[in-house]
C-alpha cells in the first residue's frame, strides 16, 4: 500500500472550484498538508483549480497516477473507475456515497465497481468514506477540517464523520497519528488489510480501530492474532446490540447476545477492547509509546497524598498491584525525603516538594528492579512548575528507556504547556487518575498477552463418533432440529460426558421396571420435541422413591403436558437416577454468524439468568483457554473451595469442557447446546450433566 500512503502522484477526480464542495476541500487539504508529489485536479469544466492545472479526464494526465481520489456523483463513479483502470492507477479512494449503504441500486453499483477494481488489478478504499491521511508523507486526502498531528498511532475507522470529530478532539489532546483511514463500505480493502500493512509500517506503534461490523470473524481472529504479537491492536466496537438473542431457544443464546462473540473473538486474537472513545485513546497513547509492565511492577509517585490514595485504589480495583521496593530504594528515599513523606509505594513527596525533590525521587524509583512503570501524579502547587517536571520526566525517560513512564497531572489549565511538552516527547499525559489507571491496565494486559505461552490444542480421542452420527441421522430423518433429552444425553455419553443412568419409558409399567433397575430415588421427565422448558408445563417430577409414585408421576406428567401443550408429540417419559447435590454450573454453546461456535461457562441452576455469572470463549479452545474461561467466573471461586468449603473436581470439569469442545469440532452442525445444571462434586468425585438441550442447524 505504499502507493496509497506515499503516492508519487495523486489525481482528484471531481476537484471543484466551488469552496462549498467536497471536491474543493480535498484538493485544498492535499495542498495544505504539504504533499510534495505531483497533483492533478480532474474536472471537465475547469482549466485550473487552486492555482494548479486541471485536466478534463484521467486519460489526459501526462504522467502516471498512483492514487485517484474520486469525488464525482455516484452515477459517474463506474466510468471514472474504468478510466482509472485504463490509465494504470493503482489505488482509488472513493469518497462518493450512494452504494451498498443505500440498498437496492446502490448494492448493484458497488458490485459493479468492485468488478472493475478486480478487472484492472486496482485496490480501493471505500466507497462512502472520508479518505486517507498520512502525516509522515505528508498527505491529507480527506475533507476533514484539519490535518492530524504527526505521531505513531494508526487509526482505522468505519465511520468517516467520526474521524473528523476525533481529529478535532485529538488536536486539543495533543495526540498524534501516523495514518488515518476511513474504510467506508470496505468493499475491497478491509480493516484487516490495513492492520496487516500497519504492522510493517515503521511509523506505527499502535493500531486503533472503530468498527461497527466485522464481516468474517473467524478470519479476523486468525489474521489479527498474528499482528498482535508484534503491535497492539485496540478496538472500539460500535453497534453492540442484543439483537438475535430473542431468536435463540436456550439460556446460552439469551445470555450471549452479539457482544459476547466479539469479546471472545477479540480476546482470542489478543486485541484490547475499549468501551468508549476516550478509553480507546487512553490505551492508545500509552501502548504507542511505553513498554508494557508486569502486573505487580507499578510505582505511584505524587506530591499529593490524596492523588496517591485515589490512584492506588483504582489500580487495586482493576486487579493491579503496586511494586514492593527493594531495601536500597527504601534507604535512599529515607535520605532524600522529609519525615512526613510516604516512602512505601505509593510514594508521597508531600505538598511542599519542589521539582528537584520530585525528580530525584522519580529516578530512585526508576532504579528499582521491581519497578517496571512509574505513574507520575502531580497537583499544581505554587512550589512546583509542571513544565519543569515534564522536562525532567522526558530526560529520565531517555535514561531509562525500558521503563514505562506515564504522567497523571490532575487538574486543568495549569498543565497546558506541560501536557504539550510531554505528548510531543512521547510521554502519555492524563488529567485524571482513572484514565491513567485504564492506560496502565491496557499496557499490563498487552504484556500478559505477549508473555502468554503458545497454546497447544488437544484432541480427545476416546469418543464414539459413530454413535453420535447415528443419533443425528435419526433426528434428521424425522425432520427435527431439536434433539430429545434422551438423544442429547446419549450423545454426551458417547463423548465421555457423564450423565445419570436413564431409560426412556413408554408406559407406566415400563417406567416402574426402569426405576427398579436404575434404583430409587428417580426423576421423571417428559420427552417431547415440542417442549424445551419442561418445568413450565409440569413435565418433571423429582424425588420419586416407590413403584406407586412412579405410576402416579407418569400419569400426572402426561396429563399436565397434554393440558398445556395439547398437540405436543410425546415420545415417552425419561426415568433417571436422581443425582446428589453439588455445585451447579452451566455449559452452553451457540453459533455466532461471524465468529462461529461460542462456548459459555458459569453459575448454573435456576438462577443462571439472574446472576449472569458467565464467561465466553470461542471454539476451538486449547486447555489454557478452558482454564482461563473457568477462571473468569465467580463460581470458580466456589469450585476452588470458598471459605472452608471443599474444593470441587475442577480437573473433571476441565475435561468435560474439553470433550464438549471436541464434540463441536467433530459435529459443527450442533448449533446450540445447554447443559444446565452440570453438577460438580468434590475433588475426585466427578461431575454430572443433569439436563441437556441440543439443537442442530437447519440445513443438512
Ligand atoms: N470527471 C471529473 N469531474 C467531474 C465529473 C467527471 N466525470 N463529473 C462531474 N465532475 C465535476 C463537476 O463538474 C463538479 O465540479 P464543479 O463544481 O467545478 O462543476 C465536481 O466534479 C463535483 O460534481 P457535482 O456534480 O457538483 O457533485 P457534488 O460535489 O455535489 O457531489 C459527491 C459529489 C461525491 C460529494 C456526492 O455525490 C457525495 O457522494 N456526497 C456524499 C459524500 C460522503 O458523505 N461520503 C462519505 C463520507 S464519511
Chain-wise SSE layout:
Elements: H1 2-5, E1 9-13, H2 22-32, E2 38-42, E3 48-49, E4 52-53, E5 67-70, H3 74-87, E6 91-94, H4 105-119, E7 123-125, E8 131-134, E9 139-142, E10 149-157, H5 160-172, E11 176-182, H6 191-199, E12 206-211, H7 217-228, E13 233-237, H8 251-256, H9 259-269, E14 272-274, H10 277-287, E15 298-302, H11 305-317, H12 327-336, E16 347-348, H13 355-366, E17 373-378, H14 386-399, E18 404-409, H15 416-424, E19 429-430, H16 433-451, H17 465-477, H18 485-494, E20 502-505, H19 508-518, E21 522-527, E22 540-544, H20 547-564, E23 572-577, E24 583-592, E25 596-603, H21 608-611, E26 614-618, H22 623-631, H23 635-639, H24 650-666, E27 670-680, E28 687-689, E29 692-696
Parallel strand pairs: 1-2, 1-5, 5-6, 6-7, 10-11, 10-12, 12-13, 13-14, 15-16, 15-17, 17-18, 18-19
Antiparallel strand pairs: 3-4, 8-9, 8-11, 20-23, 21-22, 21-23, 24-25, 24-27, 25-26, 27-28, 27-29
Helix pairs in contact: 3-4, 6-7, 7-9, 10-16, 11-16, 12-13, 13-14, 14-15, 17-18, 19-20
Bound molecules: coenzyme A.
Coenzyme A binds next to helix 2, helix 3 and helix 5.
Task: Please tell me about this protein's structure.
With 700 residues, the chain is α/β, with parallel strands linked by helices. 39% of the residues lie in helices and 21% in strands. The chain has 24 helices and 29 strands. The protein has a 7-stranded mixed beta sheet with strand order 9-8-11-10-12-13-14, with helices on both faces. Strands 24, 25, 26, 27, 28 and 29 form a 6-stranded antiparallel beta sheet that branches. A 5-stranded parallel beta sheet has the order 2-1-5-6-7, sandwiched between helices. Helix 6 (191-199) packs parallel to helix 7. The model is unreliable at 243-257 (pLDDT under 50). Coenzyme A binds at residues 13-14, 16-18, 21-23, 42-46, 71-74, 76, 80, 95-98, 128-130, 160-161, 182. Residues 13-14, 16-18, 21-23, 42-46, 71-74, 76, 80, 95-98, 128-130, 160-161, 182 line the site of coenzyme A (COA).
